[in-house]
Amino acid sequence: MTTGEPAPPGPPSAGWYPDPSGAFAHRYWDGATWTGYVDVDGRTMWSPPGAVGAPGPGPTAGPRVRGTEGLASALGVLLGVAAGALVALVLALVHRFAATVTWQRWNEDRDPAPLFRRLDLADGLVTGVEIVLALLTIAVLALLVTWLWRVAANASDAGRWDSRLAPGWAIAGWFVPLASLVLPCIVTRACWRATEPAADVPTRGARTIGWWWGTWVAGLLLVGGGGKVDTHTATSYLELRVSDAVEAAGAVALIAAALLLRVVVRRLTDRDRALVALR
Question: How would you list the strands of the sheet with 34-40, edge to edge?
Fold first, then answer.
């Protein structure tokens, strides 16, 4: 970014000049008036147009700002733990596959007790990891819903919300049958647009959100479709192996979703912080 001298009397040429409010290093002058584009540590961000003032006055008081930094940090940790648990699930499913191979090759004349112990251990490992993942999912969703609503509410208070869905859908959208497969993604995209700092960013952000949501939904459907049988309820080796393969594919998709969501949360939190910086 090329910076110039403070805007002289009269209409100077468009460019970056020292921020007249003093809140940021530089603000963009479009040739006729100050815009909402500001420089934050070398990055172009947006400060609410209403906060752009003439030289001298500081920022005026605005609506209460809802913090998102703490929730974003907690989400990042939980998502990392969840990704690790999903890797453990894949390994447990691979272990059970190996147990079924042993089962298939077991000589019926041998004592079956060691085989049964191995099969029970394989089932126990898969079930135990699934329980841990269920608890982690509840915790992640609780933080995610709260964080997303705060970002939406901050954008709405700043006058940047342009979606037909009210910010409250950041919460309600997760609990509407079938519609919950699309509503949270729509609200997240609306949050991205509402915190938009520059014209060249939305496409990249929208794609990241789309990939996150696609892998999330695919992973949930695959994990739900598989994992319905174990070594005691399967009617054949093939049934168990297909079920475990489907569940493992879902776990891999959810690992990708967790990592993508960490990126979305971090970027959107940075944009939300810049949006409310002068309020």
Answer: 15-18, 26-29, 34-40, 43-46
3/182 Cα distance (integer angstroms): 43
The answer to whether 75 and 265 have CB atoms below 8 angstroms apart is yes
**What is the tens place of the pLDDT at every residue in 61-114?**
445 667 889 999 999 999 999 999 999 999 999 988 888 877 667 667 677 777
Note the pLDDT tens digit of each residue in 157-214. Answer: 888 888 888 999 999 999 999 999 999 999 999 999 888 875 444 445 678 999 999 9
Gap between the Cα atoms of 14 and 47, Å rounded: 18
Query: For residue 48, which of 162, 149, 195 has the smallest C-alpha distance?
Result: 195
Cα 249 from Cα 243, distance rounded (Å): 10
d(Cα 219, Cα 87) in Å, to the nearest integer?
A: 13
